[in-house]
Amino acid sequence: MCGILAVLGCSDDSQAKRVRVLELSRRLKHRGPDWSGIYQHGDCYLAHQRLAIVDPASGDQPLYNEDKKIVVTVNGEIYNHEELRLSLHNHKFRTGSDCDVIAHLYEEHGENFVDMLDGIFSFVLLDTRDNSFLVARDAIGITSLYIGWGLDGSVWISSELKGLHDECEHFESFPPGHLYSSKNGCLRRWYNPPWFSEAIPSTPYDPLALRRAFENAVIKRLMTDVPFGVLLSGGLDSSLVASITSRYLAGTKAAKHWGAQLHSFCVGLEGSPDLKAAKEVADYLGTVHHEFHFTVQDGIDAIEDVIYHIETYDVTTIRASTPMFLMSRKIKSLGVKMVISGEGSDEIFGGYLYFHKAPNKEEFHRETCRKIKALHQYDCLRANKATSAWGLEARVPFLDKEFVNVAMSIDPEWKMIKPEQGRIEKWILRRAFDDEKQPYLPKHILYRQKEQFSDGVGYSWIDGLKAHADQHVNDKMMLNAAHIFPHNTPTTKEAYYYRMIFERFFPQNSARLSVPGGASVACSTATAVEWDAAWSKNLDPSGRAAIGVHNSAYEKHLVNGNMNSKIMDSIPLTNGVGGHVGISRSSAYINKCSSGSSATLAQSKEVDVGPSSPRPLAALAGPSIAGDPSTRSSEQPVSSNQVPNAEVASDDNHVLAPRPVGLCREAAERAEEKENNKHLKELVVWWKKADEELRSPSHKVKTLGSDLLLRSRPSATCPNCAYAAAFGHNLSLKFSMFGHDKAAAILKIHDLQKELRAAKEAKKACAEALEQGKTEGFSAGRLVGRTEGLNNVARRLADGFDQHRLDSSLDTNLQPYPEEEENVVAGSDEFEVLLAEVGNRK
Amino acid sequence: MCGILAVLGIADNPLGKRPRIIELSRRLRHRGPDWSGLHHHQNCYLAHERLAIVDPASGDQPLYNEDKTIVVTVNGEIYNHKELRERLKSHEFRTGSDCEVIAHLYEEYGEEFVNMLDGMFSFVLLDTRDNSFIAARDAIGITPLYIGWGLDGSVWFASEMKALSDDCERFMSFLPGHIYSSKLGGLRRWYNPPWFAEQIPSTPYEPIVLRKAFEKAVVKRLMTDVPFGVLLSGGLDSSLVASVASRYLADSEAAQWGSQLHTFCIGLKGSPDLKAAKEVADYLGTRHHEFHFTVQEGIDALAEVIYHIETYDVTTIRASTPMFLMSRKIRALGVKMVLSGEGSDEIFGGYLYFHKAPNKEEFHQETCRKIKALHLYDCLRANKSTSAWGVEARVPFLDKEFINVAMSIDPEWKMIRPDLGRIEKWILRNAFDDEQNPYLPKHILYRQKEQFSDGVGYSWIDGLKDHANQQVTDAMLANASFVYPENTPTTKEGYYYRTIFERFFPKNAARSTVPGGPSVACSTAKAVEWDAAWSKNLDPSGRAALGVHVAAYDEAKVATEAPAVNGFSGKE
């Protein structure tokens, strides 16, 4: 990235003004540490801070056409510059810079050339022949750009807010895909792809076409004359980027100069999920992998800097930007100037968890469109500014113009999340790269469920932030928040804390208006909040609110459903069976989080923090769970609907184990309620033990999890444990171990009957329990509902499998995995043992 | 280079001070862009902005001893750290950083270890066992360091003035070769070489000894885990550094970055330096990088240069600007460390005014004075204008041992004797005059000095003057002594720089950190007495002494009665 600043028509051509422009341009120096340039033509100034990626030797800016009549200052990369050069064969180019084409294209085509550019860019072009100018920003807003107006009639353009906010009377974010022309003095949109109208497309899903399109997008971005790498969090998106990059690196110019081995980077608190996941992918791909560790204190110390750089007070953005900001510094210190990153995929494919609740494909599609249109305020802003703060450029292949066109023309029916057909979020992307012969990624990574950036870096990160904010913001301040910050009023102490810092750096009204606000649940747009009535009551910006839709959360429904609703209310923590409810955008890590005792403890503190502290489970789980137990059996379809989701479990090995832990914590809290301290202690001990065990290598966990579950089950106080063990545990064990496909196959091929038998037995046990009357906290009716749900599950799985096989016949074959069968069977046995125990108890 | 900031003994609410310390430390981030660290202990903070040169992976600072009771934040390079580690066998080291020895040496030897360090350094060490601390700066002051005092009784140390100037009631440059100990509560000099007393030495000149000493100094400085290069202006000093470095590169640890040496030169297009450097680079076969700048680019950078180098000294600013611009380009190439030729002119009396030294005693004493003042001039320039972009400059001529060798030579040998064919720095030139295995072609080896700011192109200084003339009116200059009673600027250029400086550093204490006084062509005030004509014509640049340049000797035949046409004759 580079930094651009342009002041046009300020009626002041004095030395003082020049010095001032230079000074302001220096505020963007972090974006372009390599060189700076300024061009002055009368009262128009174009300044540039350069990060040299292509043609470092001669591409200093501003750039000119042949007779220097047209001057242009650009922040960006034009990937198709070589083709464009060919189309301009009668022009003479002064440099090898990719941005050089802009001046010449303007000369050739006037203002209508912007759509010919393929890449990321923001530029200001000054035509000195008539003193007109032109400003444009790329389609999605990957590069940052602001526009402002001075009282003297000047127009200001700057890559970051800090370049112009002190000088302008009004300023705002320059809308992406737009063009500002001084001739007609207004903004107009140059970017008009088919998806922009939000009409529902109907192209059938073609995995290979999608794959090709994405591969092309990545390959394009390997255009570099300097060392580069990929940001690898170990999630699906970044792993795909890394996989493709390393596959195609060898043939590129980049490889010739900097070696054919790919560098990958990951940041996290020590022992964080991302680090582990990324390592696994890096090992698989054979990249030179760099891990950076930071401490919560490091992060907190950097917050001010982060807010200054990314220029927002949006809570999730700040949370996610900080680790990225720290990592960028380390990456840069290794001499790497460019990284490829995975942003955008969640928006295009509806990867956020709340998409589970999309009522129909039309809503689904429109929400993805809205998300893409808002990207420049969230993930693009983060990815661009957090890296640019250290002179690092982030490239985002998912937001390639062509790729977006391909992906957004697919019938959204295919993107819908359909657990019953085995389609988890972003299934069409996963499927497109599911290549048996030449696998891009191991299956379990390819089908791993989403992790949000800020959770993946470590469980205690967000808790640490909240704890820190609590120390600096008191309740009185919160009471006055609406008066102090009438616009986008912060609702949590954390938000208030960020806002204070933001206002210190950017006190102008325009600045606070440049940050988006409004209702959102788990990163949704305001419109999507309407998808679930419960959401609007519980607007947590983080992903936890949508917890009810994550597979692990489905499991929890079982649990919570079983809880006495009165208790639920008094212990909002139960949402957090996983521990982190309300903390992150995603609940993906909820399972693991719960194992972090500190996280969970911190969480209990958080409950008092504010209205946003969520009880999403209660709220989101749907009527079948939150309602009165007596109504349960009639809602069986709903619960059965959720069980399968549980089964589309991520392949994460730990997925299962924490649940008992969480359960026991619930029990612990209930015990606490009863002032049964002795019991509490006992539970805490087991809970901690489980926590420890869970951190040990995964294979152990599988068995240990259930073992601990048994042991930690406190006699009669926590029937939930036993119940969960009997049902959710075993079933999800399979899925968590093998991922949906394999598990489905195994079930289909080997064990469906057994499973059904087990279900029947469970049903019987429930009936018995029902006969004996309701034991403490044990809702038999609900149990029955579950059991019947289980029947449905089995049936659906069978169907789903067939459907699946159909789908996968495209380029893969679903294979049974004989070496894993044993486990499954063992799991079933265990199931029966547990079941027997439940029966006995009753 | 790194950036360090230490605040010791904060009186009230030390915890609440943390964000402020972070903010201040951020002002030094250009010095250490790679990572930052902050250690907090009771009412003390040690902050560090790191430029990773040795052990980039693990050497993040602050550094500790084994039980973390001793904390140290260091800006510098300890070249003999491996030997020192050997001596500290009983100690367990946490990192591969060269600076970690400091904590352990302190543990072993108390405060008396500083003289054992060979390198350039500024550090603050905190002993948490009794909350005492020491701060020290290297012998010559290659690394910058400032000390300041807060009204609350706190003591502050910072690599650059900008980090403490707002929070201290008073501050000053930390004297090189000194140590500050909280136990004794004062500064004392730890550096006591024989030359310091300014007594006239008598060791006869031994070319091979001098050569070996310098070669050792260069080789020592090839300790690096990152890409590096040599600043090559094409003059004697930088050419020697480049020659020795390229000769010994292959065997050094720096060779991991390729055995071809990178050299860098900057100038206005067609400048003498560019030409001379190219010639040397071609001779040595280095990978040479030429950077061009325009007078306008230099002028546009002035404010930033002054902010970074923290001085209003005219010659320093003139020479710093090209170096500052070049450092950005060097850094953009991924190079983090450069070797540079500073110090040679001071040690060997290479400035043109040394021609007029009346005798060897005066000559020697002037070199001593010049070395002692280096930290205010060339060391400051070399360090801060490179550090502004996260590039570290290493200066082999200021190697402790090399100085001892060079300063123990009978100054009779250093005297400039046109009658004997000895031009400036003759003993250095002669030491590297190797017929069999030449370090440099003869004509380069015996080329006469260009001042840095002239070498980049003749129009540079004229451009600066023109620009200043446009900005500063005669009326402004007439009031200069009232506006700036201390170190009153005497030229419009000086006035212009001063206004910029005052804008960034408005405090009294700040302007006192910059030296003043009469000077001719970089001489100390004392040496102005060498020639009666000089005191009437105090141009700070080297041109005033033009009368002594060979080119000028020729001219002097024509214009003897006009010994200095205000520097606009001759080469101009």
Automatic annotation (TrEMBL), chain A:
GO terms under cellular component: cytosol
Pfam families linked to this entry: Asn_synthase, GATase_7
SUPFAM superfamilies: Adenine nucleotide alpha hydrolases-like, N-terminal nucleophile aminohydrolases (Ntn hydrolases)
Coiled coil spans: 742-772
Ranges where the record places region Disordered: 600-655
Keyword set, alphabetical order: Amino-acid biosynthesis, Asparagine biosynthesis, ATP-binding, Coiled coil, Glutamine amidotransferase, Ligase, Nucleotide-binding
Highest taxon, organism lineage: Eukaryota
Reaction equation(s) it catalyzes: L-aspartate + L-glutamine + ATP + H2O = L-asparagine + L-glutamate + AMP + diphosphate + H(+)
GO molecular function term, any single one: asparagine synthase (glutamine-hydrolyzing) activity
Pathway(s) annotated for this protein in UniProt: Amino-acid biosynthesis; L-asparagine biosynthesis; L-asparagine from L-aspartate (L-Gln route): step 1/1
Domain Glutamine amidotransferase type-2: start-end pairs: 2-185
E.C. code: 6.3.5.4
InterPro entries, alphabetized: Asn_synth_AEB (IPR006426), Asn_synthase (IPR001962), Asn_Synthetase (IPR050795), AsnB_N (IPR033738), GATase_2_dom (IPR017932), Ntn_hydrolases_N (IPR029055), Rossmann-like_a/b/a_fold (IPR014729)
Gene Ontology BP term (one): response to stress
PROSITE patterns: GATASE_TYPE_2 (PS51278)
Residue spans of biased composition, Polar residues class: 630-644
Enzyme class: ligase
Name of the protein described by the UniProt record: asparagine synthase (glutamine-hydrolyzing)
Organism: Sesamum alatum
UniProtKB/TrEMBL annotation, chain B:
Domain of life: Eukaryota
Chain ranges of the Glutamine amidotransferase type-2 domain: 2-185
GO CC annotations, alphabetized: cytosol
Gene3D superfamilies linked: Glutamine Phosphoribosylpyrophosphate, subunit 1, domain 1, HUPs
Keyword flag Disulfide bond: no
Enzyme Commission code(s) on record: 6.3.5.4
BP GO terms, sorted: asparagine biosynthetic process; response to stress
Binding site for ATP: L231, I266, S340, G341
Entry keyword annotation includes Amino-acid biosynthesis: yes
Pfam families per the UniProt record, alphabetical: Asn_synthase (PF00733), GATase_7 (PF13537)
SUPFAM superfamilies in UniProt: Adenine nucleotide alpha hydrolases-like, N-terminal nucleophile aminohydrolases (Ntn hydrolases)
Annotated site, Important for beta-aspartyl-AMP intermediate formation, chain positions: E342
GO molecular function terms listed in the Swiss-Prot or TrEMBL record: asparagine synthase (glutamine-hydrolyzing) activity; ATP binding
NCBIfam families found in the cross-reference section: PRK09431.1 (NF006949)
UniProt-recorded name of the protein: Asparagine synthetase [glutamine-hydrolyzing]
Organism: Sesamum alatum
Native organism taxonomy: Eukaryota, Viridiplantae, Streptophyta, Embryophyta, Tracheophyta
